[in-house]
Amino acid sequence: MSLHQQLQERAAQGKPIRVGLIGAGKFGAMYLAQIPRTPGVHLVGIADLNPAAAKTNLSRVGWAAAQTEATSLDQAISSGLTHVGEDWQALVRHPAIDVVVECTGHPIAAVDHCLEAFAHGKHVVNVTVEADAFAGPLLAQRAAQAGVVYSLAFGDQPAMICDLVDWARTCGFPVVAAGRGHKWLPHFCESTPETVWGYYGLTPEQASRGGLNPKMFNSFLDGSKPSIESTAVANATGLGVPSNGLLYPPASIEDIPSVTRPRSDGGVLERKGMVEVISSLHTDGRPIPYDIRMGVWVTVEAPTDYVKHCFEEYNAHTDPSGRYFTLYKRWHLIGLEVGMSVASVALRREPTGVARGWHADVVATAKRDLKPGDVLDGEGGYTVWGKLLPSDTSMRTGGLPLGLAHDVKVVRPVAKGQSLCWDDVAMDTTTHAYRLRKELETLHRPGV
To answer: Phi and psi dihedrals of 255, rounded to 5?
Structure first.
């Protein structure tokens, strides 16, 4: 039975999936826009630091004010309405909630939210992929120990890439490469919230109309988010990562099969079986026609001459050798697609992407010369961007994960372009996020 059919059945039985949402910003609002048209789902409650802003977003996406008049979670459950408040702990602890959607974008808080939800028997769809990037394997482990499902969020590119990789492997294709698109030039890594809209291709008016956060969008532009998302994919699929960061090779969709081959066959990969991000700009800044900027892709190899001939016979577009083929989705709809994850974890107890090992990491890297006393402002800010590295490299150098580089004071000089290590900063060692990350490192030390 399809997920939609199961949702319809739950609606007919009066047993909807009961959802709690933490964080009702842009991503959360997109999911909220789809809930009224999704059968078998009841959004019981929203926890947000600014309930008034959350209600404004609900109104913006078309919710009637009366739908959020429930004064408590219990009333919301009995009436079919939604409660909006600040108390995330009450939300994740309520016995009637089935699935928690973590949508704050704050990685340190997200770890707290996930762990508390697991402790109270809730499945979690984690939109805050930044937390998954530095602690995903242990978040998955904690969920399994609690007998619940932890999942990346469909609609966000990592889960969709994982879906393509799963398609390829289930069909018997060796995966050569997988990833997403991005608008990229090397100097974008220096972008700040002040420069982001010009680089991104939006006017300040468009950004304001959409309620877009410049720091969050800058995290995409400066390469942090592509690195974070590639880390999540590598840890979920076992694919490798480039030894010194993403290459961002420019390519049209037509050229992806040729570009995402190993170097020995004329491509850019160090070897087969890696993540990579395709740029939608030529190196001189010219736009590439028919780009994959907003999409995802997987490149597979014909394992036999017979399969290669099938590619040819059915007019599949391949590289010139006929061996490499790319399947892609040119668009992703972000929060509008989160319902796939909610239904999957609640009805099938299956994640739409989850870390299975620690293969990759995102290390905070200086955007400018940093001096003692400077305070790091995390991804998308003015001080650091995220560089994708193999987890072994990060472990060896003591790399500071980008997700923990928030409100942290620098204690020794760091040159522009240099990746930071733990010894460069004064960390708050009391958070669950820090402790979980250090546990992950301990488990992966040689001989452990």
So the answer is: -90, -5
